[in-house]
Design a protein that fits this description.
alpha/beta; seven-stranded mixed sheet; four-stranded mixed sheet; 11 strands; 42% helix; elongated
């Protein structure tokens, strides 16, 4: 049996004997990279709490007094916690969780209120599918959200994934869940991440949504239509909102299903009859799935090149075409929507189409261009058999 893939750090607390011994051993190891910027972190935190000092200049005694107050005059080298990241052979010194969170979210202030930031951080967020989901989790964590994450994907990074997953070819063959968890833990070692290495399955959907407590929101970025449908069936039962981004050429189509507000909401907003959705099985072929997804997303919302590409599946294309800039955009937008829902702000429901062409391509909204797109859509609907 292969060795487990490491994806979480070992947190070392200096007041525990075994941790002290391990810490001392790691620091002596010449192969280990030691990152200890704790004094810099505390100095920056002083500036965060005393913004006027940026204009007037720091007084060393004030900073020293602040550091002493934070550490309670404890040895600064044992203050807080150390995190050992075995996959990169690196040991990092961190502030205690509350101060670490305060520092790393300090530039969010006013753009996100403290109450919103606290709620966002304490939220339980599920992300199923970790290609686009890679960008989703990165955006969530870097914005200070989702200490409690549940991530699911059974896949490993392939060469063709690297056009939209933020790694190099040195990571080919590495589990996607490991990549996502590793980045999150490097940003926040206090994260609490549950990993579903087997991906979402009919047997674990309930646990994914409900254990150890109900998710505040689930973000669906899976490829398999059957699992997308089953995830929504269970999310609706438990009144958990589901959001999703579909790649759409250079843009994305965002889908927002508020089962928390509307527990009787039809799956996929009723755009495909539920009796038809319930006939979908794990063996449903990709062409049939493409037809269903095209109806769900709506043909008018699909970009011209994406329409042409969908018609080539199984002919000149072996899988869905996707672009990195669309994946990154999807991550940022889904993180924004998730935060708004979690903190209780109103958001629109249904579909939102984000098309860069509409803003940057001259003549995109001209009548002739709009009519040409309508003709293209009509031809696509006929060709794909909708």
């Amino acid at each position: 049996m292969p060795a487990p893939v490491p994806y979480a750090p070992v947190i070392l607390i200096s007041d525990r004997k075994k941790d002290r011994e391990m810490l001392a051993s790691l620091k002596k190891n010449p192969r280990v990279t030691v990152v200890d910027a704790i004094e810099d972190h505390l100095t920056e935190l002083y500036a965060v709490r005393h913004p006027a000092s940026v204009m007037t200049g720091f007084r060393k005694r004030d900073v020293a007094a602040f550091i002493a107050a934070c550490t309670k005059s404890e040895d600064i080298h044992t203050y807080g916690s150390w995190a050992w990241y075995p996959w990169i052979f690196t040991l990092i010194h961190f502030l205690p969780e509350a101060l670490h969170t305060e520092l790393r979210t300090s530039r969010n202030r006013n753009l996100i209120t403290k109450a919103e930031q606290d709620r966002f951080y304490a939220s339980h967020i599920g992300v199923a599918g970790l290609s686009v989901g890679n960008s989703v989790v990165a955006s969530l964590v870097h914005t200070g959200g989702g200490k409690f994450l549940r991530i699911a994907d059974t896949d490993t990074v392939s060469g063709s994934n690297i056009n939209r997953v933020r790694v190099g070819f040195d990571m080919v063959g590495v589990s996607k869940y490991a990549l996502v968890a590793r980045e999150a833990y490097l940003v926040n070692p206090y994260s609490d991440i549950s990993v579903y290495k087997e991906g979402i399955t009919p047997g674990n959907i309930e646990r994914f949504l409900m254990h150890p407590k109900p998710l505040d929101i689930v973000i669906d970025e899976m490829d398999t239509l059957y699992l997308k449908i089953q995830l929504r069936v269970h999310a609706r039962k438990h009144r958990i909102p589901v959001i999703m981004a579909a790649d759409n050429g250079d843009g994305v189509v965002i889908d927002i299903e508020r089962y928390d507000l509307h527990p009787a909401l039809p799956l996929m907003h009723g755009q495909v009859p539920e009796r038809e959705l319930m006939d979908i099985t794990p063996k449903t072929d990709r062409v049939t799935a493409a037809r269903i997804i095209s109806r769900w997303v709506k043909p008018d919302n699909i970009s011209g090149r994406m329409k042409d590409s969908l018609l080539e599946l199984g002919k000149t294309l072996y899988t869905w075409p996707q672009l990195g800039n669309a994946a990154f955009m999807a991550g940022a937008v889904l993180s924004f929507v998730a935060r708004k829902i979690i903190v209780g702000d109103p958001v629109v429901e249904g579909k939102v189409v984000i098309t860069p062409d509409a803003f940057f391509v001259p003549g995109y909204t001209a009548r002739s261009a709009m009519n040409a797109r309508k003709r293209h859509t009509a031809a696509f609907v006929k060709a794909i058999g909708l």
